[in-house]
Every structure is written in C-alpha cells, then in structure tokens.
Amino acid sequence: MGEIQLAPVDRLIRKAGAERVSEGAKKALAAILEDLAKQITEAAVQYARHAKRKTITADDIKLAAKALLG
User: Fold this and answer.
1) Domains delineated in the chain
2) What is the pLDDT along the chain (70 residues), one digit of tens a residue?
3) At 36, which helix (H) or strand (E)?
C-alpha cells in the first residue's frame, strides 16, 4: 500500500460531491496523487539544488506544481 491513507482520499472525493465512493476509486485516486506528489517533489528538489540549497521551500513546491500542472 502507498503512503496516502484512503480515509482522507474518501473525504476529498465526498467534498467534491460524491455520495458514495468505491474502494477502487479511493485506491486509484490515492495512487494518482502519490505519483503526482512524487513528480512535484522531484522537480522541487531540482529547483532547490539549482539555487544551491538543501532545504526544499514552499516556493519550490509551488513553482514545481505550476510547471508540471500549468
């Protein structure tokens, strides 16, 4: 199993308006979110390294997310 717990994923889907959520839907979204988080984090690490820093900042994460997601 991945890092993201299914209960918070269930809550996210329900907040979006779903009345019922299958286990498969929760697992699928969790896997997608983990993959996306990994991609954003890897890009953020590169931004920090380029700036000669070891610490990843919120700005690194935001910049990486914007670059990957548009």
Assistant:
1) 6-69 (1.10.20.10)
2) 589 999 999 999 999 999 999 999 999 999 999 999 999 999 999 999 999 999 999 999 999 999 999 9
3) helix 23-50
